[in-house]
Amino acid sequence: MDATCLLDGKFDLAESPVWSVAGQTLWFVDINAPALHRLDPATLTLETWKMPAAIGCIALMQDGGVIAARRDGIWRLDLAGGPETLLAPSPLEAARFNDGRCDRQGRFWVGGMTDTREPETALYRLDGASLPGRLTRQGLVGAIATSNALAWSPDGATLYHADTPTHCVFAYDYDAKTAAISNRRLFLDLRDSGERPDGAAVDSAGNYWVALYGAGRVVQFSPVGERLRDVHLPVKAPTMPCFGGPDLKTLYITTARQKHDADELAKMPLAGGIFSVRVDIPGLPETPFAG
Asked: Could you give the domains of the chain?
């Protein structure tokens, strides 16, 4: 399968695509040129909100707001022009927030990424209205350098997560009532291929789709880790897939342009674009933050 470029946006580090079912729009961020974007795929209309600090990931809220994990903390954004609300200050030092999303109950999970790429940060959970501002470190995951590949199985009973430099994705049992994780186990071992797991998504059949940064592809794995299909892109740095479209059968893929030299950009002029491909199994709507 080959993905095609939907928007040649030349984003430096596009990430965290989230489909709005209500608005039929694709939300995503550019981490390095910090901004929040909203794209209407039908008209290719792009709206942009500049950010004061690197923005690693977002989640939508039921009331139309957006929760954003920035270097300066986790914020509730009012896109109508109202004031931002700090939900939790960042506990990170020499690091920023990276990949994140809500679980099936609307709790926001987000991991860090260290400036040195040493394993000195962690994965965190931000609870909603019942425990406002409570940011809980997930000790079972351990120290990490680049948090990525966070996703849940359709029933919410399995959590997936990766520390990208390890080339491995781990699975955990997930207690939906308490948000506790247990039974850490290896789900994907990509060390032999050298492939680096970045952002991920799970379809309605439980298949796990993960962007392989640097390899120019997004790969679909079965719930037991069998490699099912590769989606190829004409760029080397896909960052994260998400499911969207009216039937949730369009896979949208963000990509990066950062750290490409002149020769690479000449060969891959669409680097930093937003790509899409039609798939046969629909995804699942993202759960909004329960804040």
From this structure: 4-278 (2.120.10.30)
Contact 54, 96 (CB under 8 A): yes
230 given a catalytic annotation: no
Q: What angle do CA 214, 146, 218 make, to 5 degrees?
A: 35
* Run of H or E including 23: none
> What are the φ/ψ torsions at residue 29 (nearest 5 degrees)?
-125, 160
3-state class (DSSP) for residue 267:
helix
Catalytic hit among 63, 198, 203, 280:
198
For residue 49, the model assigns a pLDDT of 97
CB within 8 Å of 71: residues ≥ 6 apart: 53, 54, 55, 56, 90, 92, 96, 97
pLDDT band at 132 (very low <50, low <70, confident <90, very high): low
Q: Which helix (H) or strand (E) holds 263?
A: helix 262-267
Q: What is the pTM of this model?
A: 0.97
Cβ neighbours for 139, distance < 8 A, ≥ 6 positions apart: none
| C-alpha span between 105 and 59 (Å, rounded) | 13
Q: Contact, 21 vs 268, CB < 8 A?
A: no
